Fold this protein.
Amino acid sequence: MGMEGASKKESVTGPENAEITKVQVWEELRARGLEAPGNRGLVEKWTIQQEEKVVRGTSRDAIILNVNRGDLYVAAGDRPGALGCLEDARRQAFQENDDDLREIIEDKMDGIEM
């Protein structure tokens, strides 16, 4: 009897530590906006998960995190926020001499500024 209750609860709430993908967050933001119930929490949880990966990763991972954050700002309709994240990423890519990544970032920035 106790096991049935635990299984039912787990299926309703889902695994607490399940990884949230950028696509899941992006789709929620595009569909319902940042202010929709639960969406700020979703963005915060995604950010924490990504920051934990960056701590164990490379400087390139940190740059990509800022690019991904920029994409989420675009999805939420916050162009200045997106450009801020992308500017941080561009600066990091320049410091790391990663011209390929810097070029990708600049293309994204040009697309937002139009």
Helices lie at 2-13, 22-32, 39-56, 59-75, 79-95, 99-113.
